[in-house]
Amino acid sequence: MAAVVHEHGADILRPRAYQLEMLEDSMQRNIIVAPLLKRVFFLCPKVALAEQQHRVVSKQLPAYPTRLLVGKDGCDFWSTQSIWDEVLLNIRIVVCTHDVLCNALSHAFVKMAEIALLVFDEAHYCKDRHAANRIMRDFYDSARLEGREVPHVLGLSASPVFNDDVQGLQYVT
Q1: Which of 64, 110, 120, 164: CA 20 to 30 A from 42?
Q2: Over residues 70-92, mean pLDDT
């Protein structure tokens, strides 16, 4: 956390040296900073997009073991914690569809407290009964409201307005 300095009656946040170093590194190349025991989940609404993003993430971040998880991998039939533990062993970044993570959370094979960062590609899908919204409503919000640890969230969208409704922009943010 940044240091708080009191100047002229106001609290001013001053970044620490390691925070400045990470900022400078991120301006030069793509980086993800995550605790070693936690994972990043990069979520996509469609299998084709998950496959594309997995190729990009794997190429851009070769030092981090990544795994693509989609329905054709059979993950809908992985019915024990030991299977999930084996599949995710040493994996730091998981690229998958919203449904895959939602199902894994529903069966407690993956827990919110084990995730460092949730990245929602096409975040405008995160509404109504979509799996992206269920992840946030049923798992993230409930954990947060109970005071449990939750991951950071990054939502990405090129089209945050729904049906020419500017209110949709406020809904996503």
Answers
A1: 164
A2: 92
- Of 132, 58, 126, the C-alpha closest to 95 is 58
Question: Coil, strand, or helix at residue 112?
Answer: helix
- Exposure string of 109-146, with b = 16+ CB inside 10 Å and e = fewer, is bbebeebbbbbbbbbbbbeeebbbbbbbeebbeebeee
Is the pLDDT at 171 greater than 50? The verdict is no
pTM of the model: 0.74
Tell me the DSSP string of 77-95. G--SHHHHHHHHTT--EEE
Neighbouring C-alpha atoms within 13 Å toward the C-beta of 115: 27
The pLDDT of residue 39 is: 93
Q: What is the largest CA-CA distance in the chain?
A: 61
47 pLDDT exceeds 60?
A: yes
